[in-house]
């Protein structure tokens, strides 16, 4: 779909920012338009934000749209759109049925450019917090089932990709394990609250990039949602030296694009070998 593909040494990637609504169908239609836009602009890998298919009025809304692993309208949409656009799509997150009827797995699924699913990672750190000096509080464990503790890294035409989701950003030991498995790109689809995003979003995303000498693609939810929750936006693509290569500047649906040098992480890790200088493992 694109007339402007980068050279083989450069991978063009996209972070898809969304203001997701309280029903699945309009969110999928919006995601489709944004993914097509990313493909038209030459992206080969696109990352959707956490809860891209549904930000419901109630936390239990996700239970009514939960899908069986490998089958359902959201997963079918992703496979079909990946094949249609020629994009690799990292779609975070999809509500996948768990053994408990009142909880679902928050699954980040990755599809290659033929529409085949090549990975699934279930969020392991659940956002059970009360925000300081605020009545704002969240308990994801009430409706989410955490995944296993196994870090997930996959091969792709753009290098090895590590998978993470939102609140994972606050746990650097996970990212160290992703880097130890060779991750050169790390995706972090998110739905950061406005309060925590204002305080910590840029710091956390850039820190995970710097300390692991990896590109971090972090699409975020943005704006007000059906529940009254407000998310921070400012979707980011950060390079392995910590530089912000692209950032969303609105609270609306937006595609941000960056060209990443596929050899940069390896060059930095060779010349600035902080990953191999660690003495605490």
From TrEMBL:
KW Hydrolase (keyword) present: yes
UniProt GO MF annotations: hydrolase activity, acting on carbon-nitrogen (but not peptide) bonds, in linear amides
Coiled coil: none
Residue ranges of domain CN hydrolase in the record: 11-262
SUPFAM superfamilies: Carbon-nitrogen hydrolase (SSF56317)
UniProt keyword terms in alphabetical order: Hydrolase
Heme found in the keyword field: no
Classification via Pfam families: CN_hydrolase (PF00795)
Top-rank taxon: Bacteria
Gene3D superfamilies (alphabetical): Carbon-nitrogen hydrolase (3.60.110.10)
Family: Belongs to the carbon-nitrogen hydrolase superfamily. NIT1/NIT2 family.
Name assigned to this protein: Nitrilase
């Amino acid at each position: 779909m694109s007339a402007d593909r980068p050279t083989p040494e450069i991978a063009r990637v996209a972070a898809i920012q969304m203001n997701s609504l309280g029903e699945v169908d309009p969110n999928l239609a919006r995601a489709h338009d944004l993914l097509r836009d990313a493909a038209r602009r030459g992206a080969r890998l696109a990352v959707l934000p956490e809860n891209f298919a549904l930000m419901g009025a109630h936390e239990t809304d996700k239970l009514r749209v939960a899908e069986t692993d490998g089958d359902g309208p959201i997963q079918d949409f992703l496979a079909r759109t990946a094949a249609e656009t020629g994009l690799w799509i990292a779609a975070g997150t999809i509500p996948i049925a768990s053994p408990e009827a009142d909880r679902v797995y928050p699954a980040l699924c990755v599809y290659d450019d033929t529409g085949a699913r090549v990975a699934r990672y279930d969020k392991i750190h659940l956002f059970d917090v009360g925000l300081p000096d605020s009545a704002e509080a969240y308990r994801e464990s009430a409706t989410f089932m955490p995944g296993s503790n196994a870090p997930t890294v996959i091969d792709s035409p753009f290098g090895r990709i590590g998978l993470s989701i939102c609140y994972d950003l606050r746990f650097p030991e996970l990212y160290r394990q992703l880097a130890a498995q060779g991750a050169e790109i790390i995706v972090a689809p998110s739905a950061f609250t406005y309060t925590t995003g204002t305080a910590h979003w840029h710091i956390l995303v850039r820190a995970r990039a710097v300390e692991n000498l990896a590109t971090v693609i972090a699409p975020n939810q943005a704006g007000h949602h059906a529940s009254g929750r407000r998310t921070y936006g400012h979707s980011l693509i950060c390079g392995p030296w910590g530089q912000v290569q692209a950032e969303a500047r609105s609270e609306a649906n937006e595609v941000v694009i960056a060209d990443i040098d596929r050899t940069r992480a390896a060059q930095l890790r060779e010349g600035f070998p902080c990953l191999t200088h660690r003495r605490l493992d």
